[in-house]
Write a structure and sequence with these properties.
By secondary structure, this protein is of the alpha/beta class. The protein has a single domain, classed as Ribonuclease Z/Hydroxyacylglutathione hydrolase-like (Metallo-beta-lactamase, Chain A, 4-Layer Sandwich). 27% of the residues lie in helices and 29% in strands. The protein has eight helices and 13 strands. It has helices at residues 33-39, 57-60, 63-68, 77-83, 158-166, 172-179, 185-194, 215-226; strands at residues 3-10, 13-19, 24-27, 47-51, 73-76, 90-93, 99-101, 104-110, 119-125, 130-134, 149-153, 202-206, 229-232. The protein has a seven-stranded mixed sheet with strand order 7-8-9-10-11-12-13, with helices on one face. It has a six-stranded mixed sheet with strand order 1-2-3-4-5-6. Helix 7 (185-194) packs parallel to helix 8 (215-226).
């Protein structure tokens, strides 16, 4: 059993709490620390560790304060250097080097984003659940077997982006950057088709853009594509 709670998922900030009923983790820390405290009902001591995918502020804003609160931060050395993180609560990790936090076994993998050393994560627990966390990338080179939960960015749809460029609402340079740094709806569909999702219980769509997405449409299309329960992370 995995319980997922979205604390926020947008360019304003990203953070998620996941637990298997025994070990609770924070994925990302992209809000001021006081906001995280409120969302977690001030039970910060319940969090065994925080994984941070990359250094952009909407994913890492509270990293230093999380460490000050006694929670270890697990992130790449490139991300740690970019954020100026140091100390005994910093736990540098590398792609393909598995590590454990409580009942979770975690294997990071490389993603493609305009950041120092960004990572995605595969998290497996002792009950046989397996979750992939994939955000802020324009490509995933890996396939994953035995997934039960998927947390994947669905930032935009190309037809919406093209229409906004045509209408003068989005600069072509912004479109270029978007396509080179984020997963869109079309990417999500290809990713899901490329992976074994026979055991998947939930698909969470993350980090939808305010202007370049349509939450109801994205949910409907992914449900039609997969036949699975789809959740759109609240913004």
């Amino acid at each position: 059993m995995i319980d997922i709670k979205c604390l926020g998922s947008s360019s304003a900030g990203n953070a998620y709490r996941i637990t298997d009923g025994r070990t609770a983790l924070l994925l990302e820390a992209g809000f001021p620390y006081k906001s995280l405290q409120r969302e977690l009902k001030f039970r910060m001591s319940d969090i065994a560790g925080c994984l941070i995918s990359h250094e952009h502020g909407d994913h890492s804003k509270a990293a230093k304060d999380v460490m000050k609160a006694g929670i270890p931060i697990y992130t790449s050395q490139g991300t740690a250097n970019a954020l100026g993180l140091a100390g005994h609560r910093l736990k540098p990790i590398k792609a393909h080097q598995q590590f454990e936090i409580g009942t979770w076994s975690i294997r990071p993998f490389e993603i493609e984003h305009d950041a120092a050393e960004p990572l995605g994560f595969i998290l497996a627990n002792t009950a046989g659940d397996k979750l992939v966390f994939l955000t802020d990338t324009y490509y995933c080179r890996y396939r994953f077997a035995g997934l039960t939960h998927i947390m994947v960015e669905a930032n935009y749809s190309l037809d919406i982006v093209n229409q906004r460029v045509a209408d003068g609402q989005l600069h072509p340079a912004q479109k270029k950057r978007l396509l080179r740094s984020h997963f869109g709806l079309e990417h999500v569909k290809d990713f899901l088709k490329a992976n074994d999702i026979s055991r998947v219980e939930e698909i969470w769509l993350l980090h939808l853009s305010d202007g370049n997405s349509d939450a109801a449409r994205f949910k409907r299309e992914i449900q039609e594509t997969t036949g699975k329960m789809v959740m759109v992370a609240n913004r």
